Amino acid sequence: MIDWLRLFECAAWEICEKVKPLFGSEKGGKTLGRGAGGDVSKMIDVLAEEIVIKTLEDRGVSCVLVSEECGIKRLGEGESSGYVIIDGIDGTTNAVHGLPFVATSLAFAEGPHLKDVQMGLVMDFSRNTIFLAEKGRGAFQDKKRLKTSSVTTLRNAMISFELGYQCDREKQIRRLTPILADSKKIRILGSTALELCYIASGALDAFIDLRGAARATDLAAAKLILAEAGGQSVTFSGLPLNIALKDISTASILATSNLLLCNNILKKLRVNHNNS
Question: Which domains does the chain have, with CATH numbers?
Answer without folding.
Answer: 4-145 (3.30.540.10), 154-275 (3.40.190.80)
